[in-house]
Design a protein that fits this description.
Blueprint: E1 2-7, E2 10-13, E3 18-26, E4 31-39, E5 46-52, E6 57-59, E7 67-72, E8 77-82, E9 91-101, E10 104-109, E11 113-118
Parallel strand pairs: 2-11
Antiparallel strand pairs: 1-3, 3-8, 4-5, 4-9, 5-6, 7-8, 9-10, 9-11
Length: about 120
């Protein structure tokens, strides 16, 4: 099993910055990727960024150039540094971890953290 805990959400004014953290525990040696989704009220859940076990990051077009995903392998932690925040970034951000369980790709989710950006 892999457990996921996020932290770092909060409220900020437009143009500000926040850093989210995602800590994985358990069978961390089976992790293949870690990423972040976000969901605003009434909207679908969208992928924000992900980083593979090889360290390759990918971003949605809406956050490219403003958000940076990084990892501290020793701490089993992934960070999402968010800069130039806009009101449309307001959402619940959820971290996920993809890992292998009995040869099957499995996904674990964190509880989500609220990010609110005011104009």
């Amino acid at each position: 099993q892999v457990q996921v805990v996020e932290s770092g959400g909060g409220s900020v004014q437009a143009g500000g910055s926040l850093r989210l953290s995602c800590v994985a525990s358990g069978s961390t040696n089976t992790i293949t990727a870690i990423g972040w989704y976000r969901q605003a009220p009434g909207d679908q859940r969208d992928l924000v960024a992900r980083i593979s076990v090889g360290g390759n990051p990918t971003y949605s077009n809406s956050v490219k150039g403003r958000f940076t995903i990084s990892r501290d392998t020793a701490k089993n932690t992934v960070y999402l540094q968010m800069t130039g925040l806009k009101p449309e970034d307001t959402a619940v951000y959820s971290c996920y971890v993809d890992w292998i369980s009995r040869d099957l790709q499995t996904r674990s989710w964190g509880q989500g953290t609220q990010v609110t950006v005011s104009a």
